[in-house]
Amino acid sequence: MSDIALTPPVPVTTEPVLIRSLLIGLSLVFVALFLFAPLVTVFVEALRQGWGATVDALRLPDAQAAIRMTLTIAAIAVPINAVFGIAAAWAITKFDFRGKAFLITLIDLPFSVSPVVAGLMLVLLFGANSTLGGWLIANGMPIVFAFPGIVLATLFVTFPFVARELIPVMIEQGRAEEEAALTLGASGWRTFFTVTLPNIRWALLYGVLLCNARAMGEFGAVAVVSGKIRGETATMPTMVEMFYNEYLSVAAFTLAAVLAMLALLTLLLKSLLEWRHADLLAATRRH
Amino acid sequence: MRAGILRSPSPLPGFGLSFGIMMTVLSIVVLLPIGALLGRGLMIGPADLWEMLNSRRIWSALSLSFRAALIASLFNLVFGLMLAWVLVRYRFWGRRFIDAAVDLPFALPTAVAGIALTALYAPNGVFGQALAPLGLQVAYTEVGIWVALVFIGLPFVVRTVQPVIEELEADLEEVSATLGARRAYTLRRVILPTLTPALLTGFALALARSVGEYGSVIFIAGNIPNLTEIAPLLIVIRLEEYNYDAAAAIGIAMLIISFAMLLAINAIQTWSRRRIGLV
């Protein structure tokens, strides 16, 4: 036995245990206070007066109309956005044309525009006091304070989601497989459905998932454009605001809890996709 | 159309169709509305625009939106970096769960976050009651706006920095240690410089999102003119008064701020690509 006391090795590529534990602890506290506390509050407040009151709140005609409205909007806006995203990704990744970088910046633009400003733009373009809006209203097709306006506002705020996810994936996959399919005599559509689509399906699903979450949850742009007419143009998030401002706390938080559950479902599906298909998603690509 | 726009020929079909769909949707959804706002601005004229913007209430609102976004994004810069580091480098129970939870602010509708934060921090809420003896009031003050924007901006910093930490080469840290650097020195002089572009990008993304944020803020802010009234809310108020010109003026000011930040983000990414080849 040697007399030299063996000191534990000093870590050189990580931090000392004390600092590690401190940072982990701090992170957990931070996440608990800033993320989990608000989430839990939604459900606590929804159930504050017992299950009966919560169920009654869901039966309110205004709440039901808002739920139907939100589902309808998402059912229209998300497919349009998916088709746009696929078309944009195809044009941008399969061809070389002038102004491509500028085009990508334009597609990204809605992410950095305030939702309220987005709503304002639609009001200025299609509102009753604009030339185009006045003409559309005279012909029985009002956009602002009506259904089409909400769809357009939703399309604006969700605009980059699918394209943003597909473009990096399709750049990485290149054009060789499609070119081979065409050389072997496949038609353009057949090439797309049997070669391209299987390659991008998980990325597409991922983009659609994020797009759908935002479509159902958008507040600012929709609040401005919809006019928040009960039973007609009120969506779930705008109905949450109206209930809340009328001090109908349980009703507001019940509708909010439904939205929160949708958000949790989105996170769950998103995590599953990230764990299963990380290599096929732009967001989680590991080299 | 194909020959005119394409830079080089491609054997693949569908350029006309896909380009057509893209430009049609882009025009209707994004370009026409932006054109309508800018066109309105041109009709009003720069002198009158300036006249409309030059009021104490609007300057208070614009500077509040920017200041609160800046403070919240700086806070997120520090805590987002910590969270990203802990999630990548340390193994602990519940790590994957926390990792998934970081995206909650992306998934949770802003109005839901807004009323939940207000319920928590209101004087009779759980956090509100806990902070009252310390003399801190969060709800209906500017601090409340900071809290809402911290919630909104957090994922931007974490999700931008996380992949870069994952790709850090261990040898760099080993070399640094072998050459006699203490861990703190390695972190400061080797790791932090590598993370700087990603940190700046995440910070700028969080800032851009926070400046225009509306849903999560208006419930907790109290919305007192000149004090806790954010710029987007002022647009909504002007629209409800059917004062479209005044709303357009504020909207244009905010759009210019957005464009400036978009340019800044692009510049940071170009700079970082040139410097270390990482985005």
From TrEMBL, chain A:
Major localization class: membrane
Keywords for the protein's UniProt record, in alphabetical order: Membrane, Sulfate transport, Transmembrane, Transmembrane helix, Transport
Occurrences of domain ABC transmembrane type-1 (ranges): 67-274
Entry keyword annotation includes tRNA-binding: no
Membrane-topology descriptor: Multi-pass membrane protein
Compartments in which it is found: Cell membrane
Quaternary structure annotation from Swiss-Prot or TrEMBL: The complex is composed of two ATP-binding proteins (CysA), two transmembrane proteins (CysT and CysW) and a solute-binding protein (CysP).
Name used for this protein in its record: Sulfate ABC transporter permease subunit CysW
Organism this protein belongs to: Pseudodonghicola flavimaris
From TrEMBL, chain B:
Swiss-Prot/TrEMBL keywords: Membrane, Sulfate transport, Transmembrane, Transmembrane helix, Transport
Pfam family, one: BPD_transp_1
Protein family according to the UniProt entry: Belongs to the binding-protein-dependent transport system permease family. CysTW subfamily.
Function, in words: Part of the ABC transporter complex (TC 3.A.1.6.1) involved in sulfate/thiosulfate import. Part of the ABC transporter complex CysAWTP (TC 3.A.1.6.1) involved in sulfate/thiosulfate import. Probably responsible for the translocation of the substrate across the membrane.
Subcellular location: Cell membrane
InterPro entries the UniProt entry points to: CysT_permease (IPR011865), MetI-like (IPR000515), MetI-like_sf (IPR035906), Sulph_transpt2 (IPR005667)
Primary location group: membrane
Transmembrane parts of this sequence: 12-38, 58-88, 100-122, 134-158, 190-208, 246-268
Coiled-coil ranges (or none): none
Subunit field text: The complex is composed of two ATP-binding proteins (CysA), two transmembrane proteins (CysT and CysW) and a solute-binding protein (CysP).
Name this protein carries in UniProt: Sulfate transport system permease protein CysT
Gene designation: cysT
Domain ABC transmembrane type-1: 62-265
Membrane topology annotation: Multi-pass membrane protein
